[in-house]
Amino acid sequence: MTDKQTETSPADAQNxxxxxxxxxxxxxxxxxxxxVIKLSALGDVVxxxxxxxxxxxxxxxxxxxxxxxxxxxDLMKASGFFDSIAIDRRPKLxxxxxxxxxxxxxxxxxxxxxxDLQTSDRSGFYYKLFWPGPKPEWSGIARGCSHxxxxxxxxxxxxxxxxxxxxxxxxxxxxxxxxISGPDIDLDRFGIRSPFVLICPxxxxxxxxxxxxxxxxxxxxxxxADYRLTPVLIGTDSEADVLNRIDQMCPKARNLMGRxxxxxIASLAARSVLAIGNDTGPMHIAxxxxxxxxxxxxxxxxxxxxxxxxxxxxxxxxxxxxxLRQLTVNRVMDVIRERLDLTD
Length: 344
Fold this sequence. Notes:
Helices cover 35% and strands 16% of the residues. It has two domains: 6-169, Glycogen Phosphorylase B (Rossmann fold, 3-Layer(aba) Sandwich), CATH 3.40.50.2000; 187-340, Rossmann fold (3-Layer(aba) Sandwich). The strands form two sheets. A seven-stranded parallel beta sheet has the order 1-4-3-2-5-6-7, sandwiched between helices. A six-stranded parallel beta sheet has the order 10-9-8-11-12-13, with helices on both faces.
C-alpha cells in the first residue's frame, strides 16, 4: 500500500470540491481513471490477482480504483496494484439511499474504463446506474457495454482463463499467474517448528460435501508427524470442531485456529514444504504464495473450472473423489510422498 492509497465507501462519497485538487488538475495532465470490480469470494479474488497485475501493467500511469467488499481490503492493499479502494456494501434495491450513494460514486468517479471481473447480475446492474449520463468504456458482460466478453464458452472456462480471454477482448494480452506475498513472519510467534505442512481442513459450512472428514485429516496429520513434518492447522473459529478433532488425534500438530488472516496464510504457505486442504479459499492463497499444493475435490465442484493455480506446471495437484468420505488416507499419502519425495 502506498501513502497515496485511500480507502472509502460509496456511501461516504460526497460532491465536495477541493481548491488544491482543482489547481493541480489544471497544472498536470489528466490521469486516466480506471475502475476494477471484484467483490468476492476469496478464491475468486485470489484468482483475479493475475488480472489485477495485467490491468496495472496496461495502465501504468492511471489512477486505478478497485471496488470490493470489506473482507478483501487487506489483500487489495497488499497487492500494490491500486491507488484507492472502494468498499461495496452490496445494497438491496429496496435500500434507495445506498443505491443512490453507489450511483453517485460511479458517476462522479469520472472513470474512463471499467473492468468488471465479477461479471455477475449485480455488477451488470452497476453498469445501468450510469443512465442517463455518459457511460465509461466497460469490459464485462453488461448488455450494451463497449468491450463485451461474448465468448459462448465462458461458463465452461477456468476462472483465470475466462479473465484472460475477457481482458484480451479489451486489448490486454499478457495475464500472469496469481501471486500473493505476505509479510515476513516469525515462526516462533506461532510455535512452529520447520519443516511443516500447512493443512486447511475447513470450508464453506453450507457445503459439507466439499470437506474431507476431520478424522481423515487427523490420521493424515499423524502420518506426517511420523516423517518429522509438523502439521500446522489453519481455520476460523467457526471450524473449531474440525480443528480441535485433528488436534486431539495428533498432539504434535500446531492448531492456529483464528490466528491467521489472509496475509498470514500467504506468509506461512511460502515457508511451508507443502499445503494440503479442501477446495476452499485459503488453498488458493497457499498456491498463489508459492506453496506446493494438494487440493481435495468432490463432485460438488469442478477443478477444471476453479482449481487453485500456482507457479509452475506441477505446482498444484488435484485429488478428486465424488464422495470425499470414500477418499482414503493412504491415497492422499501416496500423492504427498510423491510430491515431497518421502521414503518409508
